[in-house]
Each structure stands twice: as structure tokens, then as C-alpha cells.
Design a protein that fits this description.
The complex is a heterodimer. Chain A is mainly alpha-helical. Chain A is about 50% helix and about 5% strand. Chain A has helices at about 10-20, 25-35, 45-50, 60-70, 85-95, 105-125, 135-145, 155-170, 185-190, 200; strands spanning about 45, 85, 130, 180, 185. In chain A, α4 packs across α6 and α7 (about 135-145) packs across α8. Chain B is globular and about 95 Å long. Chain B contains 36 helices and 1 strand. Classes of the chains: A mainly alpha, B mainly alpha. At the A-B interface, α2, α4, α7, α8 and β4 of A face α20, α21, α23, β1 and α26 of B. β4 of chain A pairs antiparallel with β1 (about 620) of chain B, so a sheet runs across the interface.
């Protein structure tokens, strides 16, 4: 945490660039944003995320913010959460949203897919037991629909249930009456979202330009 | 109806325009083989009795009187019959696209006319095409445009449509001119400006042709929207370019200076944006209009057509781009119109649009074929024609690759090479180019016929040759196909989630990207546009996830009805505890049904236990029934409605009353009475068989009464329920009173597969309140459940069980002790399941 000096020069940028795949310019822009959010501190806390005005009306902001503090998203075997993140962690989490580069092989693309889906999976799987249980899923769906006024909590629940049933029927096929569907495992999750083109959908354009001044 | 009238008018004028030269002369009918023999006799009658009559004619032959509309209708019939013949064998259309076949049929028909008349009487004229055939095709395209996809790829589409089209026009014109200068095509009287004019009319990819070919190959959606969007937008561009160059040609080369060129560029933007703006305004008006068409449901769909057409004509009147106008009108209004109008009207609009669009598409292709069989237009110039074909193909490829190369630098998801090839190859030219060529003024352009003929050849080449080879090419290049399956609910949820995540990431990283803009637009749209343009009642149902969920429920209910009908009755509905998953379990025999009952009872056991002890927090199949029940709760109004529709249908046909403004027939009181009585009788019969059971009928009636009362405040469809409520009350009373009539029941049973489900206590809100175990567990765990809620969970049990008994027996004639035994047996099973872990289990 806070692995970086307050004003990293280019050497650090190059390291980070290799690690996350962002270009130097992008890192520069993101670092500026990081400092803006953290009020020139070296680390970011949850409250500072919550202060972002545009985020206030996002129904699943809690989950998104949590993803930034989740060690699983920093490297493969991480576990648990942290209270503060430094710029490096910020950048690593952001790098999940990098669009895949133009010329990559099938295998690399598959890897990118897996990483992105893992990030998404972790967002659902709050207790890190490797499955998204109905509880967890329902919670997310409820949050997701909490903003649209027409749908009550009950509806959200039934939607989550229906989706879960659908998942069960897709991934398990026919189930015997006494079988239970524990929850979505990562493998199932991969299979379910197979036709989803996540590599293109879960991508944000990171500009080289500095647009922060325009955006509160 | 306005639509029909317009169609009629449209077609009248179609033929009027196509026949106007021959109609000018009185000998016109002699051209028609049907007309000749009578022409001498009917001459007098046609002018509404101008000629003095000597005696009262009983019947007269008035071919002249009806000839125009008659021919219009006949031609439509003939074109559509062509389509019918073509579509009759699928292995041909699998290889050769329909559009190509239609053109070939056009050749045949044209040949026949030529053979009969030795002059081409019928051909596609620009007026007919632009005023009566094109608008509905574009309207349909705009109306069914996937807006989100379109606007996401808007940048790319605009680049292709504007820059690509200008590129095509300029390069074709200049290259042909260059070749002309080089002496490749002999002696032609065409100047540079005229070449450019020709280039501009050939530049556009034709939407009708593109749709016809691409809808059969199912390429991935990004590729499709690119080609399709380009073809729609560049129509506007071409028409503008054409007008500008046409004006330049009229002005003559010497008068064109910088000011004129700048004017041309300005007019280009004004025409394009002005047209879009007109369309947008009409779209808004249309949306506003449908807010208040509640009382004229029957002509509601007509407004879409009339307003769309008006948008087209208004833009045409202001010399703005009419195609862009009608397209944007349809695109803007689709969301609001669909939400505002009655579901039936929406379906009507969809179908009618398809009828018109498909119909006019068919006519366009057939007439493109017919137009070819005309000696007058065929002027052969090998150099000109072949070079045009070559340049079109080559520059299309170069243009697409060049523009994609630039675009890919900015695109999040680059367009790959294969897609680029298909996009280039999909540059089909069509009727727009032909109509524009036919509009050329022969006085200004000496070689008009050569241009028309070249255009036709290009159209035939692209539509027939490229159309046929498109499919193999797509297969050979392994182009990413569109996902054929429908999105699952899970995917929808994930999709929504993605949107929010992406916005959040952009917010956090401080970027202003697509998602940021989209979110802002969405917010604006939700706050202002929806408020202005949507009915208050329609605003609720905007959520996409909810609509999927809603559809799932409807499907579920529909399959329920279908299954029930296959069994010959809706008896199964009585078996209310058993929301059997019919897909898996239906079709088994009575004895095979037994395990299901066991399953049901077992999960009832489960439910009961849920209140007592901690259940397992996972989804199991058994809970499926429960979940479906829970899901159905907000939907049971719909289910009722749906079932009722099905059930009443048999009666509907007997009472057909004509009304110009209403469709509903089921308002007759006696009918309702009768249905009620029939229901009662069959019901009583079941009571009788239940007499050996334990629950008194009173329980049911009371219970349902309570249910209804509960439902009414919640139900959206209050008016619907208020009717049934009364029945429920009377039912309760008469249940005992009718007892004496039981002997009558037998005769009624035969036809009485029909029962009003509304009378059934099947979709009991209370039982759906019985929260499935995992859910109950969640609530217990959370510790936030108020005692009253807990009580609600428990409360329905005793009464529900009572109620289950007789009904189930009536349905299956099982014994009461099945019920009594089953739970015990199942409970044993349940003990073997993993012991319920303490909260929070498994987490």
C-alpha cells in the first residue's frame, strides 16, 4: 500500500505500465485523478470514493467500491480486504477494464476473458467461498434494481430467484428432486456468460488526454 | 382506416405515374390485351355517360373507369404472388437470395409485357418509388432499429455514410472521367460534372437490397448495424449529393466558383441535419399524440403511419432529406409509442409495418426486373459499363479499409479484417440508384440512357451476383454470427450491471467516455423525456429486466394453459399445491403423477419446516414450484387474464357483433352468467366427490373471498377484479344452495373443460406469501423480520392444508391419507439431506 512516492517519476510509471498494460500517458492521467480523489494523499479510503458526486446515484456503488479494496483483485491468491489502497492497487483494479489490445492470440483473449469474469465473479462472491450463492446473488440484484422505482424488493427477489433457477437448469441440466444447487461456481459462471463477449463489453476507454477538469 | 386509404392512394398513384404517358392517349386500353375487344364499345361509357344513350343499359363495361386502380391492385397481387412462388421452396432461397429471384421474376414478367405490347408500359418511375414505395421500407427499418446499438456505433456509421459515400462518389466520377479522357470508352458526351453526378447517384449502398441480403445471413450485430446504418444514412447523403451535382450540371461548369461550392457543402449539412431534425420533431409529436389515444384504440396504429409519412413529405417539401427524416421519426418515437399504446396496437403497428415494408420491397424488386426489359434504355458501351462495375467494387473496398483503419484507432472494439471484407462486399446498390438515374434530365445529360442502363447492370450485378455469393463468403470467412439464442435473464441482469460498473469506473477514473455520456442522457431521458412523452401508467414498465421477467412469467402461464388444454381441462389448476413443472413431469399417467404429489407434499413439509427450523439455503428443484409461485405473485393478474382469454374464446365466436371501433365482445351479462353457472356446476361436482374428504366447501368460498379482497388493493387491474369479486361472494352463498342440482352436472361435465380460473383459489396470494425456505431463512437470519411478518408466514398453513385436500382429491381422486402419509414418508427423506447449517450456513 502506498508503494509509490507521492510524485512518481517516469521509472515507476514504466514499471506500472509493464504491470498493468496502461500507457505512460494513461498512468499519468490516472495518477492525477488519484491524487485529486485522495486530496494529494498517498492512499485512498472508502469515504473518498463515496464522495465522488457522479457515483452517488449508482445503485451498485457499494459493490464497485468494495472491489477496489478487495485483495483478490490485486493478484491471484489474495484474500480479504484492505482499508486503504495506494496508486498501484488503484491502477491494478482499473486495468481490469482495459480493452483488449488489437493483436492478440486466442489464448491471450481467453485469458483476458477469464480475468474480467473473475473480477465480476468476485464482485458477486462476497465471502470468497468460490460460489455465488442465492443469497449473494439476490443481494446484488436487489441493489441493482433498488433505483428503479417500479420494482419492489419482492420483484427483485423473484427476479434473482428466476435467474438462479435458470442458471441451475442451464448448468446442471436435469436435476433429481433431491439435488441441490449450491450456487454458481466460477466454472459455471464462465460457461454461462460464454456468448457474452465480455472482452468487449467490460472495457472502458482510457484517454491519454486529461479530462479531469471537466469532470467533478 | 387511414393506413388503408393511404395504401390505396399510394398504389393508385403508382400506376397512374407509370402509365401516365399512355393514358394521355385514348387508345391506351388497346395496349392491354384484356381491353382491346371491348374498347370500341366502352368508349362512350367511360366519360360518365357523356355520349347520348338511346336505351337504358343493364350492364355496361367500364374498363376505363377502373383501369388505374385495377392495374395497381393487379400488379401488387402479381408481385406478391411471385414472392409466394419463390418462398414455396426453401432450398432455392437458401442458395439464391429472395431479392435476386424477384428480379428474375421481373425479367420474366417484363418479357411477357414486351412480347404482348412491344413497348414497356410499366416501369419503376422515380415519383412512385420515392413517394409510395420507399417511405414504408425506411419507416419499418427505423421503427425496428436497435437504438442502443445504433447510437453506440453512431460514430462509425456516420463516417462510413458521409465520408465513405463522398469518397465513392468522387472516386468513381473522377476515375471514369480519367478513363474517358484516356479514351477508354470511345466517344461519349459526358463532362466531368456529369461524371460526378453519375458517381453520386451510384455511391449509395441501398438499404432495401442490404436488408434483403443481410437478414438471411445473420452476421454479428455490430457488422449488421454498420452496414445497415450506413445504408440508411447514406441514402440521405446521396440524395443531397445528387441534388448538389444536378444543380451544378444545370449551372454549367463556367458558373461554378468557390462560393457555389461552399454553398453546396453548407446545403449538404443543412439538408442532412435539417431532415433529421424534422424527423425528430415529428417523432416527439407522435409520442405525445399516442399519450392520449386511449379512447380511439382502433385507429391508434394508423397515427404511426400517417405521422411518419407526413415527416417524410414535410422534409421533402422543405427540400431536406426525407429519408433521414422518416427514419429518425421512427427511431425517436419507437420507445415511447410502444410504451404508450395498447399492446394490441403495438402488435398491429409491427405487423402492418412489415406488411407494407415487405410488400413494397417485393414490388420494388419485381419492377426493377421489369424495367430492364425495355429496348429504349439499352445503350451498350462496354468500357463505361465494365469500368463502372470495376470501380464500384474496388473503391468500395479501398474506402472501407481506409476508413476502418482510421476508425479502429478510436474504437474500443476494433472491426476486424473479416468484417471489413464483408462490409465492403455488402455494398449493394439498389432501387435508389436506379430511381435517381431515371430522374436525370435528358436535356442536360445526353447520355442518360447509358447511365440508366449502367445503373441497372450495377444493381443486377450487386444484388444477384454479390447477393448469391454473400452467404458462401460469410461461411468461408467464418464471420462471427449473431447469437441466435435469446438473452437469458442472468445475462440481462449482468448487462445492466455492466452498464453501472462501466459508468462507475469512468466516474472514478475521471474520464468522460461513452458510458458517462450515456448515463447522463439516460438520466435526462428518464427525468424529462419520459415525463413528457410517456403515459404515467407506462412509465413503470420501463425496466428491461422486469420486462424479461414479465415475459418469462407470461410464457410460463401460457405453457400452463397449453398443457391444461391438452389434458382437456384446467382441472390441474385445482391442484394448487402442485405447481408441477409440466415440462418435466407432464404427460405421465395418473399413477406416475403420484410421486409428484409426494414431491409437492414434501416441499410443503419443507416449507413448514422452514418456519420451525433452519432449512438449507440453496435452490433445489423441489423449490421450483415454490419459486414459480412466488414469482407469479405480481403476475397472477396477468395469468388470470390470460387464462380467461383462452377460456372465453369458445364463446366468442358465437356472438360476433360488428363494431367499427371495438373489438371486445365479452360484455354480455348473460354470457358471463352462463359461464358462471357452468363453472358452478362443475365445481359442485367436485364438492360432491370431496364429500368423503374433510374440508367443507364453505372454507373455500370464504377463503377466496378473503383473497380477493386482499388482491384488489394490490392488483393493478382493479376493474377486472371488481367483476369477479361479486361472483366470489355469490358463489359462496350458492355453493350450498345449489346442492340439490348435482344430478345435472354430468351433462355439463362433458363440455366443461372450461372453467373460469378466476374462480379458483389457485393463485392464492397468501400461499405465495409462503416464502420459500431459503427466503424465509434469510428473513429469519436477518433478524429484521417483524413478528407480524413471521405470523404471516405461518398463518396460512392450516387453512391451506384443509383446502388442498378436497381439491386434490377431486383432481386426482387420491385419498386423504395419501396426504397424511406423504409428509411422513418424505420427512424421512428429508432427514437424510445435509443437516441445516447454522446461520449463515455455507457462506
Amino acid at each position: 500500500m502506498g508503494a509509490l512516492q507521492s510524485s512518481p517519476g517516469h521509472p515507476e510509471y514504466i514499471d506500472l505500465s509493464e504491470k498493468t498494460g496502461f500507457s505512460i500517458e494513461q498512468i499519468g492521467v490516472l495518477h492525477k485523478r488519484f491524487k485529486q480523489l485522495s486530496h494529494n494523499e498517498e492512499s485512498l479510503r472508502r469515504e473518498q470514493f463515496e464522495e465522488i458526486p457522479d457515483l452517488a446515484c449508482n445503485p451498485i456503488r457499494a459493490q464497485i467500491i468494495e472491489a477496489f479494496f478487495d485483495k483478490r483483485n490485486y493478484h491471484q491468491n489474495g484474500e480479504g480486504t484492505v482499508n486503504e489502497i495506494g496508486f498501484e492497487e488503484f491502477l491494478v483494479v482499473m486495468s481490469h477494464f482495459r480493452p483488449p489490445s488489437l493483436h492478440i492470440t486466442e489464448e491471450q483473449l481467453e485469458k483476458v476473458r477469464r480475468e474480467k469474469l473473475r473480477f465480476l465473479f468476485n464482485m458477486h462472491d462476497t465471502d470468497n467461498d468460490g460460489t455465488i450463492t442465492l443469497e449473494e446473488y439476490r443481494h446484488v440484484v436487489e441493489e441493482l434494481l433498488s433505483r428503479s422505482g417500479a420494482l419492489g424488493k419482492e420483484t427483485a427477489k423473484s427476479i434473482a430467484d428466476a435467474a438462479m433457477l435458470e442458471v441451475a437448469s442451464i448448468s446442471m441440466g436435469h436435476m433429481e428432486p433431491d439435488e441441490f444447487y449450491e450456487g454458481i461456481t466460477f466454472e459455471h459462471f464462465l460457461k454461462l456468460l460464454d456468448g457474452f463477449e465480455i472482452e468487449s463489453k467490460m472495457s472502458v476507454r482510457f484517454l491519454n488526454m486529461d479530462t479531469i477538469t471537466l469532470c467533478k | 382506416m387511414a393506413v388503408t386509404r393511404r395504401l390505396a392512394l399510394l398504389l393508385c398513384l403508382l400506376m397512374l405515374a407509370s402509365r401516365s404517358p399512355s393514358l394521355a392517349s385514348t387508345s391506351a386500353p388497346e395496349n392491354m390485351s384484356t381491353g382491346d375487344e371491348h374498347s370500341s364499345t366502352d368508349q362512350g361509357e367511360t366519360g360518365h355517360g357523356k355520349a347520348p344513350i338511346t336505351t337504358l343499359p343493364i350492364v355496361t363495361w367500364k374498363w376505363q373507369h377502373v383501369s388505374i386502380p385495377y392495374l395497381v391492385a393487379l400488379w401488387i397481387l402479381v408481385s406478391w404472388l411471385c414472392k409466394l412462388v419463390i418462398e414455396a421452396n426453401h432450398h432455392v432461397t437458401n442458395v439464391i437470395p429472395e431479392s435476386a429471384l424477384l428480379i428474375c421474376f421481373g425479367f420474366l414478367l417484363g418479357g411477357m409485357i414486351w412480347g404482348a405490347d412491344h413497348v414497356q408500359t410499366f416501369s419503376l418511375t422515380p415519383t412512385v418509388f420515392f413517394f409510395y414505395l420507399l417511405p414504408q421500407a425506411i419507416l419499418d427499418a427505423g421503427y425496428s432499429m436497435p437504438n442502443k446499438l445504433f447510437f453506440t456505433n453512431m460514430g462509425g456509421i456516420l463516417v462510413y455514410a458521409v465520408i465513405g459515400t463522398c469518397w465513392n462518389a468522387a472516386t468513381l466520377g473522377l476515375s471514369l472521367w480519367g478513363c474517358h479522357q484516356g479514351g477508354a470508352m470511345g466517344d461519349l458526351d459526358i463532362g466531368l460534372l456529369q461524371y460526378l453526378l453519375f458517381g453520386s447517384l451510384m455511391a449509395a449502398v441501398d438499404p432495401v437490397a442490404v436488408i434483403a441480403v443481410f437478414e438471411q445471413v445473420h452476421v454479428n450485430e455490430v457488422l449488421f448495424i454498420m452496414v445497415f446504418g450506413e445504408s440508411l444514412l447514406n441514402d440521405g447523403v446521396t440524395v443531397v449529393l445528387f441534388n448538389v451535382f444536378d444543380a451544378f450540371v444545370s449551372l454549367g461548369g463556367s458558373k461554378i466558383n468557390a462560393a457555389e461550392i461552399i454553398k453546396g457543402i453548407v446545403s449538404f449539412f443543412v439538408v442532412a441535419f435539417g431532415g433529421s431534425l424534422v424527423g425528430f420533431v415529428f417523432g416527439l409529436l407522435l409520442s405525445l399524440l399516442t399519450r392520449c389515444t386511449k379512447n380511439i384504440r382502433i385507429i391508434e396504429p394508423g397515427f404511426i403511419f400517417v405521422m411518419g409519412y407526413l415527416a417524410y413529405l414535410t422534409a421533402e417539401m422543405l427540400s431536406l432529406s426525407a429519408i433521414l427524416s422518416i427514419m429518425f421519426c421512427a427511431m425517436c418515437c419507437q420507445k415511447y409509442v410502444n410504451a404508450n399504446m395498447d399492446e394490441n396496437s403495438v402488435n398491429t403497428v409491427r405487423y402492418a409495418l412489415k406488411v407494407f415494408a415487405n410488400g413494397s420491397e417485393t414490388i420494388i424488386f419485381v419492377f426493377l426486373g421489369i424495367s430492364a426489359i425495355d429496348k429504349v434504355i439499352w445503350v451498350w458501351n462496354t468500357g463505361f459499363i465494365l469500368l463502372t462495375l470495376l470501380f464500384i467494387l474496388v473503391y468500395r473496398f479501398i474506402g472501407v479499409f481506409l476508413l476502418t483503419w482510421i476508425l479502429n484507432k478510436y474504437r474500443l472494439v476494433p472491426i476486424d479484417l473479416v468484417d471489413q471484407v464483408i462490409m465492403s462486399y455488402g455494398g449493394l446498390r439498389g432501387a435508389v440508384a436506379y430511381a435517381l438515374a431515371a430522374m436525370l434530365d435528358e436535356n442536360k445529360i445526353k447520355e442518360k440512357n447509358l447511365m440508366v442502363c449502367t445503373t441497372l447492370i450495377v444493381v443486377y450485378f450487386t444484388v444477384i451476383f454479390q447477393g448469391i455469393t454473400m452467404k458462401p463468403l460469410v461461411k468461408w470467412l467464418k464471420v462471427k454470427r449473431a447469437a441466435m439464442s435469446e438473452m437469458t435473464l442472468l445475462e440481462r441482469v449482468q448487462n445492466t450491471m455492466f452498464n453501472h460498473i462501466l459508468v462507475a469506473v469512468e466516474d472514478i477514473s475521471g474520464q468522460i467516455g461513452h458510458n458517462y455520456m450515456r448515463e447522463k442522457w439516460k438520466k435526462f431521458e428518464e427525468n424529462w423525456m419520459s415525463w413528457l412523452l410517456l403515459k404515467p401508467s407506462a412509465r413503470k414498465n420501463q425496466d428491461q429486466i422486469f420486462s424479461v421477467f414479465h415475459q418469462l412469467n407470461l410464457k410460463d402461464a401460457a405453457s400452463y394453459v397449453v398443457e391444461g388444454e391438452r389434458r382437456g381441462s384446467l382441472e390441474f389448476i385445482r391442484n394448487e399445491g402442485a405447481f408441477v413443472d409440466f415440462k418435466k413431469k407432464f404427460g405421465e399417467d395418473f399413477y406416475d403423477m403420484m410421486p409428484d404429489i409426494m414431491v409437492d407434499t414434501s416441499d410443503e413439509q419443507d416449507r413448514m419446516s422452514a418456519t420451525r427450523r433452519d432449512p438449507v439455503p440453496s435452490v433445489s428443484l423441489e423449490m421450483y414450484e415454490q419459486t414459480m409461485q412466488a414469482m407469479r405473485e405480481p403476475e397472477d393478474v396477468n395469468t388470470h387474464y390470460l387464462l380467461q382469454q383462452h377460456l372465453y374464446k369458445s364463446r366468442k365466436q358465437h356472438r360476433h357483433r360488428f363494431s367499427r371501433s371495438h373489438f371486445d365482445i365479452n360484455k354480455d351479462e348473460r354470457e358471463v352468467q352462463e359461464i358462471f353457472q357452468r363453472t358452478m356446476r362443475s365445481r359442485l361436482e367436485s364438492f360432491k366427490s370431496a364429500k368423503m374428504g374433510m374440508a367443507p366447501p364453505k372454507t373455500i368460498s370464504k377463503h377466496t373471498k378473503k383473497d380477493q379482497q386482499q388482491k384488489v388493493p394490490n392488483g393493478k387491474n382493479k376493474s377486472y377484479y371488481s367483476g369477479d369479486e361479486d361472483f366470489e361472494f355469490s358463489e359462496g352463498d350458492s355453493a350450498s344452495g345449489y346442492d340439490g342440482n348435482i344430478p345435472m352436472r354430468v351433462s355439463y361435465r362433458a363440455g366443461a373443460g372450461i372453467e373460469n380460473p378466476a374462480f379458483m383459489p389457485d393463485l392464492d396470494p397468501q400461499s405465495s406469501l409462503q416464502i420459500p425456505p431459503w427466503l424465509a431463512e434469510a428473513e429469519l437470519d436477518s433478524g429484521t423480520v417483524a413478528p407480524s411478518q413471521l405470523a404471516q408466514v405461518r398463518l396460512p398453513w392450516p387453512s391451506n392444508l384443509h383446502r388442498l385436500a378436497p381439491l386434490r382429491i377431486s383432481g386426482r381422486s387420491t385419498d386423504s391419507f395419501t396426504l397424511a402419509d406423504a409428509p411422513a414418508a418424505q420427512q424421512d427423506d428429508k432427514e437424510e439431506l445435509p443437516p441445516p447449517p447454522p446461520p449463515p450456513p455455507h457462506l
